[in-house]
């Protein structure tokens, strides 16, 4: 009995010790590589604005359409409940107006609020931990120049045990390392800039890297793609078949700057937001750095890999204006819906007109038999502003039934991806809940 | 013989109205004809106001009345008392006038009428210059032919005088008077001046039906040529020198108001001229509409919540249900005698949604306000109301308002309202230049004056023979008529539009109780006319329920209806014709395919539609075929009747399948054609239209097809699936064969290539 | 300043590059036959041709036109298909309010140019993007067939109102 107690005690000591070791804070201020859009000698507010863009703060902290910038309240539907982003304007009562520099830095890099409570990792402190203190404070300086918005926090909607913020300490112990960015001297300065842009700022991995059962990132599967909030973030490793290995540099640059790369991809959903709010504003040098880094991400196949059919039968047989190559007895419903509401922009050969972003041919969305992103795009539409141009696709979810959306998604996958879609009405119903 | 003779003990005033007008919106307005001072209305003879009107219209040598102008060169111009919004009324009016005047349709030019109740008042609508309620042909049929005849007699008299012959020896054709014995001829232009000096004949003889050369023929619309080459000018196409363009946003919450507006970004946009405001709306003016729209998007607008901030559709429906149960109900039709005791009781409750009009041409008006004057260009169904409102807003006399009516890119009742024009005037007052205000489609739908929401409870008791021994129907809704023409409400406060096609059933039943409970709508939620209004809703309830009774009684829906109708009635005539044409009861139909019948007598006509639909295992509805039989009395233009029945039916089917306006936080949730769907050509079946020929006075046509559509579809869906719809639009998820059907991969199993 | 070739004529317009062609045509060039119905490429009222291909001008930035030839409803009658379609539209008397018809005719003319003898399915594929609130679809189908074959196809025959 006594021995047992000793063992228990020892385990507790080891556990507590491990907890603190694993949760130790990296006290280094950290340094950042050269970011073309935010040179170290520039005015901190201007740097902060650029860095805040590069880190895409606005997307998560502003309710689209109706919300005030950075006032929070955006819902994140996670597998275990819904949480809401916080107000990061300088309002004293409801925002971060009373936060000291240290408190702000700690929140951004360690995920701990002013009041000492843990933040949930939907806020990507897991990536931001790499940021230099100077960069974090530049962002703060910028935020403090913006209009203060009085908007109290929306309470999270989480069940037990997820509503116990202290428990995040264990999660952090398991999945989070406080650690500043470490330049790789063996790589070019450009690559290092890209790594910082992608890792510390752009937090690409938060969406593109698969997560384990504990919601921690699977580092062995880095950037191999995952599904999140109903959307698939695709494999962006250098895998030539399943990733972006075959894309030219120009295509990658074009995609990051416009949300569109001919024959490869057209961004919508969360990636559309990333382009619209963040990536399109990067300086060309920074985009190039991002691409240089992306090129070196080890190739991985990922889960449910997508193989793009470069020349599906129906696309080849269709012209811009008229369909061809479809099996006339298959999916008449889907084709009817497409010809009514979709063809005038996407066109039968998937080339896309009015805006090139309407191009479907060759994209991974239409080559994914599960149809996650096709379904989401149909349900939610696209609304983003790139440069001076609005890219708009209506959200059809309101007036089109589940079987209709499923039939349409399957038609699109069949026609533009040359594959049999497997979307059911039930799937669509579930996606509507996401 | 009118179907309305079977309406039981409708009170005498209402009964009178039904007989005269034969139903529809007109019933309501006819009441106003008997009230107050004598109302001005169109007259085939020259009226006091016509002289000025003719003078303003180029002062032609011959202008015998408000409708006909003949120029010295023989040109014939006809002034259209009604507005053309697609219903082909310009062609119908031109045919009525030309038939008696003696010209070919190809020889005339038509003109929009200036605003004037005195000259162009619609007798069936209380004398206002109003195009609506499918009344134009009904109300003008006598007066316009007479107007043509008056003019012809004067032209003939002038020619006869010049020749010194008996007018009786002259004939008229294609704008030429011929002295038959001598073969001498004179064109209208040559005698116009002289004819203009002659007195008007006190009476004229109208042609008999057998002598018609135009009326009754399927003639090409007179407005077709310009509509196929882009030449027709709609309101939105008006060009006025110096004109600027405005894009508008009105408070999304109905009854909300405008708070602070930050326009700093908008003002930096090239082409943006200024930002102007009203209590509940803001507009950006630009050099072109695009600049205005971009400016509008760049505004940072704060809206102040109003009384509806918490209003949603569920609350509204619940409130109507409460009124239906506990509110005061007015009796629209009283049961005759005592219902026998016993029998099988059947009950049902229905919800009919609010509906938007979404005319293809978004609402717009061009307005130029100068000191003491206001000039308006717009397409409206109510020109004189526009003048009145513009005068009120500008604080000037009505004579100081000039209105140029235009072709309407669809009306459907939306342009019976003046709200958008009023707003445009209020904005235009703030600037010095002519301002074209266009509502985006989003504004158009979010600020529609919607067809009312209705909640209905209906019940019947079936006797041993399966026929109803009693029938009770309580309708609950807001009132369109009560706002739009309060004077036309019944003295007890009854809204006769709300009970139209519910009180006047085509079925021979005695113990019928029809009631209407008025539900006061929240402020800002303004209900308006819609293509078919009351009857679209009531026919859905009544014909769904009759179908249900037939089913309960174990009878064929056609036979059951027949058994309830008086032999020889016009409604029975169209029922039989439609059934025969579709081959009712012939070949068995495939699985999950059904045919639905609906019959009724809306708008002074009688109509039966039979729709054949397939419901896929996943609940998708495919229209396969439709047959419509109509008895609208004397037909002016069979081509127009066919087109209106087809188009009207599709308008109604679109709504039944897809449309419903819903509210959230006091704002309309729908905004454009992606969430307010319209049938597309690939969903449209063959639609055959058949007419019953007779000598009855013309009935209405524009709304008849719409009113009969929903019940025919709902009954077809019942026949295909056994599911009785209690609510519109059709909830397709509910129609799936089984929950398992929804687990199957969509498309693979539903594909069939058997629909036209 | 952009130069547009509209119905065979060069037109200059001093407009922002992202301005949709629709508004350039209507508000700057002054050709109002092309209609605004939805602004989101769902109704087809704004359809024009670029080098013979139908596009939704409400969503097409004017800068994307390039040197392609623009044909609008005002100019479509100068093409063989346009003439045929307009004549068939009159023969069947398709129009009601007429507001959608510019777009319908442009879509139909483009269809016939590439498929001189369209089937029902061809018509569906080409015409389903065009909404008609008045519901003229039955006659549109008929008119396209008449335009293709030159033969009336079953609906009642419309006559000229020359009598009386
Ligand atoms: S206005 Fe362009 S498609 Fe509707
Ligand atoms: S004719 Fe009116 S919308 Fe088509």
TrEMBL record, chain A:
Keyword Membrane part of the UniProt annotation: yes
Protein localization: Cell membrane
InterPro entries: Cyt_c-like_dom, Cyt_c-like_dom_sf, Cytochrome_c-type_DH, Membr-bd_ADH_cyt_c
Highest taxon of source: Bacteria
Domain Cytochrome c residues, every copy: 43-147, 189-298, 329-416
Chief place where the protein resides: membrane
Keyword list, A-Z: Cell membrane, Heme, Iron, Membrane, Metal-binding, Repeat, Signal
Protein name in the entry: Mono/diheme cytochrome c family protein
TrEMBL record, chain B:
Major enzyme class: oxidoreductase
UniProt xrefs under InterPro entries: Ald_Oxase/Xan_DH_a/b (IPR000674), AldOxase/xan_DH_MoCoBD1 (IPR008274), AldOxase/xan_DH_MoCoBD2 (IPR046867), AldOxase/xan_DH_Mopterin-bd_sf (IPR037165), N-heterocyclic_Hydroxylase (IPR052516), OxRdtase_Mopterin-bd_su_IorB (IPR012368), TAT_signal (IPR006311)
Keyword Ribosomal protein (UniProt): no
Cross-referenced Pfam families: MoCoBD_1, MoCoBD_2
Keywords: Oxidoreductase
SUPFAM superfamilies recorded: Molybdenum cofactor-binding domain
GO terms, molecular function: isoquinoline 1-oxidoreductase activity
Keyword match Oxidoreductase: yes
EC number annotated for this UniProt entry: 1.3.99.16
Domain Aldehyde oxidase/xanthine dehydrogenase a/b hammerhead: 229-307
PANTHER family per UniProt: ALDEHYDE DEHYDROGENASE (PTHR47495:SF2)
Protein's UniProt name: Isoquinoline 1-oxidoreductase beta subunit
Organism: Luteibacter jiangsuensis
Lineage: Bacteria, Pseudomonadati, Pseudomonadota, Gammaproteobacteria, Lysobacterales
From TrEMBL, chain C:
PROSITE patterns found in the cross-reference section: 2FE2S_FER_1, 2FE2S_FER_2
Classification via CDD domains: fer2 (cd00207)
Keywords: 2Fe-2S, Iron, Iron-sulfur, Metal-binding, Oxidoreductase
Record bears the keyword Ubl conjugation: no
Record-linked Pfam families: Fer2, Fer2_2
InterPro entries: 2Fe-2S-bd (IPR002888), 2Fe-2S-bd_dom_sf (IPR036884), 2Fe-2S_ferredoxin-like_sf (IPR036010), 2Fe-2S_ferredoxin-type (IPR001041), 2Fe2S_fd_BS (IPR006058), Beta-grasp_dom_sf (IPR012675), Diverse_Oxidoreductases (IPR051452)
Uppermost EC category: oxidoreductase
MF terms (GO), sorted A to Z: isoquinoline 1-oxidoreductase activity
EC numbers on record: 1.3.99.16
Chain ranges of the 2Fe-2S ferredoxin-type domain: 1-76
UniProt name for this protein: Isoquinoline 1-oxidoreductase alpha subunit
Top-level taxonomy: Bacteria, Pseudomonadati, Pseudomonadota, Gammaproteobacteria, Lysobacterales
